[in-house]
Amino acid sequence: MERGIVIGGPLPVIGDLARSVEDAGFESCWSTETTNSAFVTSAAAIAATRRIKVGTAIALAFPRSPTITAMTAWDLDELSGGRFILGLGTQVKRINERRFSVPFEHPAPKLEEYVGALRCVWAANRGEDVTFEGRFYRITMPTFHGVPQPGRRDVPVHLAAVGEVMARVCGKVADGLIGHPLASRRYLAEVLRPAVATGAEAAGRDPGAVELTASPLCSISDDVDRARREVKLQIAFYATTRTYRRILELHGRGDIVGPLRGAFADRDHDRMVELIDDELCDAIAAAGPADEVRDRVREWEAVADRVLIGGPWYGLDPGRMLDNHRALVDAFRA
């Protein structure tokens, strides 16, 4: 079982965080894209490490052209000596349109095409005579035709998927699927894993070639109530997004989305926490003393190829986030 951990925060601390993760024996560290660029964070982590893989979980696809993303991924892969993993996601409609001012249309087929365009650019840079003609992307000059770089690999592409349609896309074209932190073990096993297999088989691929990464929320504290409140508030924040309702419905909690959205609009964190019951919390997250969290996370190993450990961040001050990160590194030290 491979274990990775999410790193983040001010850029000056990223190198130290990544180095501590490597020293602790983790297989990988991963950068998110909320405030900082996932690629710049990855570059800082790569520069500070020598052995572990470094990935983006996730970088946003649609605000960037596939060619720019392909160039950036190859740069990071070269910089790392072949340790980089390109994790891409669509984000939701509102974020694309209101934060990045880009259209949001047919996300699953568009992301599938995006992966093909990436590989076209890499092939062209190896010296192959290729172009890409698709419904959403058209790349007829994928390289400046400089000195070819034969032997360079395609960077592994992992896609974030919540629904079955995107999971089938992962099975068809991706090297891996990155599960959402809201996705429970049951959801991964009963919904995403079968959808990946369906997509892979339709494309004539081996479903086992697509890595499944689980992303359980983890909060370590001897104050159990505090730890549970932290993960419950993060679950509640994620669950305000209607796109994720399918996960809640699997657990018989689809009816809490409306009340959660109301509480979120009122900035009523106490009510948001109240709406996440203990059973739902335990299905999605691990919270409490270090040994209990470690034991709970082991349960995810039966449904995933990699467990990507990350802590809650919504409503937490930076100091507590850093303390939890350090506790997670210590708890899962090899």
Structure overview:
The protein is an alpha/beta fold. The protein folds into 2 domains: 264 residues, TIM Barrel (Alpha-Beta Barrel); 66 residues, no CATH class. 48% of the residues lie in helices and 15% in strands. It has an 8-stranded parallel β-barrel with strand order 1-2-3-5-8-9-10-13, surrounded by 6 helices. A two-stranded antiparallel sheet has the order 6-7. Helix 1 crosses helix 2 and helix 2 runs parallel beside helix 3. It is globular. The N and C termini lie close together (12 Å).
Task: Name its key features.
8-stranded parallel beta barrel, two-stranded antiparallel sheet, 13 strands, globular
Could you outline the blueprint of secondary structure elements for this entry?
Layout: E1 2-7, H1 11-23, E2 28-31, H2 38-48, E3 53-56, E4 59-60, H3 66-80, E5 84-89, H4 93-98, H5 107-125, E6 132-133, E7 138-139, E8 157-161, H6 164-173, E9 176-179, H7 185-202, E10 211-214, E11 217-220, H8 224-239, H9 245-250, H10 257-265, H11 269-274, H12 278-284, E12 285-288, H13 290-298, E13 306-309, H14 318-331
Parallel strand pairs: 1-2, 1-13, 2-3, 3-5, 4-5, 5-8, 8-9, 9-10, 10-13, 11-12
Antiparallel strand pairs: 6-7
Helix pairs in contact: 1-2, 2-3, 3-5, 5-6, 6-7
